[in-house]
Amino acid sequence: MRRPVRIAVTGAAGSIANNLLFKIASGEMMGKDQPVILQLIEVPQAMEALRGIAMELEDCAYPLLHTITLHDNVEDGFKGAHHALLIGSRPRGPGMERRDLLEINAEIFTRQGRALNDYANRDVKVLVVGNPANTNALIASRNAPDLSPCQFTALTRLDHNRAKGILANHTGACSKDVKNVIVWGNHSPTQYPDLHHANVLGRPALEQIDNNWYRESFIPTIQTRGGEIIKARGQSSAASAAQAIVDHMRDWVLGTDVGEVVSMAIVSDGSYGIAKGIIYSFPVRCDYGRYQIVQGLEISEYSRQRMTATEQELLDEKAMVEHLLPKEPEASHQELSTCIRSGVTLYADGTGPEANSKYLTTTRVM
Ligand code: NAX
Question: What is the distance in A from the centroid of ligand 1 to the CA of 205?
Fold first, then answer.
């Protein structure tokens, strides 16, 4: 058996986690030969509910589930974590403005960024799910000066999967026959689900669908799908969000399938003219535990307008929390080639390479 990896999950008693934890424990995310240690984190008032979930996990007797630990604070919960899934966040309350929501969550993600910086494994891979996910990820990353900004990502894979599923259904294909859909920008209604590079059964998607349907129906459907699900079932997407988290992390860690492009919100390096330093969803491929933006795609005038609109929203969100972002790590977010790239996995038991070892470090972009 391989050495277990530590996976920290916040919001672990919530709806998404309730679907997710059982998938992780069964090996769907990290692979069927990878044991896992679940470090589950909740607010103090939800610890009893969390204890119930831990009992259920135990009762499944998953062969890959090595250990479960429960925590009411992130400083303990993030210790030695190789993967951190930041799902818990403050939902928007009645009468709450977007600015208030951003500020309240800024406090949560500031603390989480610092805790990751101080306690997580140096090579930790972070996925932010709690909304507003992109800007929360930026806040966490800016508060973790000793980690690389490249280690922080936000979830747009649910939007990507929605685009695949709905396009497949419309064209009568299976979702496995749909390739290269892209979601650009923010996980919000300004996101741009782009089909200009997509193909269905090897032929360009846009040749197989009506352009009017694409612009007037498909795009708004993807953008507002979350709200539609809440209207229909009275609760927000949980099972599909859990599946998207599994897909995002599995691809990041184990690599995307050959020829497959997926969408991940990552710190912008200026590709496609997008402002550097914001967390923006790009088309990526993953290998060796790293992601790389797919370069060289032709961008139409229509796409450019959509990409700029969602970029502008992220710049506005950033401006709203600018006073809460530490200044010092700004340079590393602007110039990714100068940031620390960790290629070394450290183990809490001291058997891994030394922290300052040159062994295995790399400047390769992947
Ligand atoms: P729930 O309200 O069911 O669960 C959230 C859990 O987080 C609660 O148990 C709460 O006690 C806990 N929590 C809150 N603050 C915490 C903190 N500081 N530390 C640890 N735990 C904390 O929400 P759920 O349906 O699970 O959704 C979680 C988040 O995902 C929400 O912010 C939601 O908006 C967001 N989503 C993001 C998606 C994406 O694609 N990026 C899609 C799905 C989802 O809407």
Answer: 34
Q: Which two structure tokens, joined as six digits, stand for 116?
A: 């990751």
**CA–CA separation, 7 vs 221, rounded Å?**
33
Q: What is the pLDDT of residue 92?
A: 77
Statement: the pTM of the whole predicted model exceeds 0.85: yes
Rounded to 5°, the CA angle 35-243-97 comes to 120
> Which residue numbers in the chain have pLDDT < 50?
338-353, 358-366
The percent of residues above 90 in pLDDT, for the chain, comes to 82
Mind listing the domains of the chain with CATH numbers? 5-154 (3.40.50.720), 157-316 (3.90.110.10)
Mutate to test the pocket of ligand 1, among 53, 70, 111, 131 (most ligand atoms within 8 A of CB): 131
Taking the chain, what is the end-to-end CA distance rounded to the nearest angstrom?
28
Q: How many angstroms separate the CA atoms of 15 and 53, rounded? A: 11
Report d(CA 214, CA 239) in Å as an integer: 26
Q: Is the CB of 131 under 6 A from ligand 1?
A: yes
SS3 label, residue 133? helix
Q: With H, G, I as helix, E, B as strand and everything else as coil, classify residue 341.
A: coil
